[in-house]
Structures are given as structure tokens and as C-alpha cells.
Amino acid sequence: MTGLPKLLMIIGGIILIIGFLMHFIKIGKLPGDIVIKKENTTFYFPLMTSILLSVILSLVFYFIGRFK
């Protein structure tokens, strides 16, 4: 198997592992995340979580590209 099918299987496996780990590691609700609660509505914007995941994924893809 080469090309696109292999890449899709690798990406799917990575997403599966990340989803499994996020079940045990509560990465949401970090300081800096925006939570607005009104009467019966809650708005949650994960600002710091998004920044943290962006930095981590940037480093991962940098190292993958560097050693490929």
C-alpha cells in the first residue's frame, strides 16, 4: 500500500490515539478559555486549548517533515 491510502490510515490512527488520550487527559477548560454562562445558555470558546494544540501540532509536523 502506497500513497493516499497509507496516508489516510496513518492520519486515522493518529486521530484515534489522540481521541483515546483526550478521554483520560482533560485538556479542555484551561485558564484562558472563555466561558460565558447566561440563564440557560453556555458559550465555551477554548482559546488557550486551541493555542496549545496548535503549538504541539506545529512541533510534531516540524519534526515529521525534518526527519522524513
Automatic annotation (TrEMBL):
Alphabetical UniProt keywords: Membrane, Transmembrane, Transmembrane helix
Pfam short name (any one): DUF2905
InterPro entries noted in UniProt: DUF2905
Transmembrane segments: 7-25, 45-64
Superkingdom field: Bacteria
Name of this chain's protein: DUF2905 domain-containing protein
Organism: Rossellomorea oryzaecorticis
Lineage: Bacteria, Bacillati, Bacillota, Bacilli, Bacillales
